[in-house]
Amino acid sequence: MRWYSWPVMALVGLLLSASLCRADEAIEKLTFMTEDYPPFNYVQDNNLKGFSVDLLELILKKLGSKKTRKDIQVHPWARSYRLTLKTPNTVLFVMTRRGPREDLFKWVGPVAASPIVLMAKKERNLKIRSSEEVKQYHIASVREDIAEIVLDEYGVPLDKREPVPYPELAAKMLEAGRVDMWAYGDIAAYWIIKQNGFNPSEYAPVYDFGSAGDNYYAFNIDTPDWIIERFQTALDELKAEIEENGQSVYQNIIDRYIK
């Protein structure tokens, strides 16, 4: 067995300590930004909430950071996007990871998959077996939303669609029976149904168009890879850690907002 002198061991310890300090400083320099996009991230009663916010706070805690949700800045999407694109040490969430953006940022996630679905009331007992059958029903959608683009791609006739300016209106129309279905992201749809005082357990997706792109934490492209790796590892651990109810920490956070 090879023995090292105390001076050598002390030097190794000092170097390791200095390296860890630099790593901590690099994480503390990060500026986190988000927008108002429930249930992922939103402001309610002057408090920042949402499951992407809760997850980030736990990730930062795992990494030993002193940062909390109070350090997260809320801006309009376009402003935050430009800043994260051009400014080192910036992070924007949540961002849909799609082809044109792939090489513009570095990514940690997914925070959540958000497939576009057709949401309906369970009591209707609707059964959709193919995309062609979708065209038979009256469907609510939100103007300029990704789900509206999906309906275009699947050839759903305009006379079968009820475009509205806000998702809350679509939820109310579905509850009142004025439409058969609502095309929207499933996680956001459940949250909006719940926030409008309706029972989420009375609704279910009857058709899944698939994901328009999963949602991630997007880091400025110049962020060191080791920072991305540490954040990704912390998120993966939250998805793997099982709590007393048999679900992961990650799943329990999501369920608090949609069930």
Element layout with pairings:
Blueprint: H1 6-28, E1 31-34, E2 42-44, E3 47-49, H2 51-62, E4 73-74, H3 77-86, E5 90-96, E6 105-112, E7 115-121, H4 131-134, E8 139-142, H5 146-153, E9 161-164, H6 167-176, E10 181-185, H7 186-195, E11 203-211, E12 215-220, H8 225-240, H9 249-258
Parallel strand pairs: 1-4, 1-5, 8-9, 8-10
Antiparallel strand pairs: 2-3, 5-12, 6-12, 7-10, 7-11
Keywords: Signal
Domain Solute-binding protein family 3/N-terminal: 29-249
Pfam family, one: SBP_bac_3
Write a brief structural summary.
This protein has helices at about 5-30, 50-60, 75-85, 130-135, 145-155, 165-175, 185-195, 225-240, 250-259; strands at about 30-35, 40-45, 45-50, 75, 90-95, 105-110, 115-120, 140, 160-165, 180-185, 205-210, 215-220. It is α/β, with parallel strands linked by helices and about 260 residues long. Strand 8, helix 5 and strand 9 form a beta-alpha-beta unit.
Write a structural description.
The chain contains 9 helices and 12 strands. It has 259 residues and is of the alpha/beta class. The chain has helices at 6-28, 51-62, 77-86, 131-134, 146-153, 167-176, 186-195, 225-240, 249-258; strands spanning 31-34, 42-44, 47-49, 73-74, 90-96, 105-112, 115-121, 139-142, 161-164, 181-185, 203-211, 215-220. The longest helix has 23 residues, at 6-28.
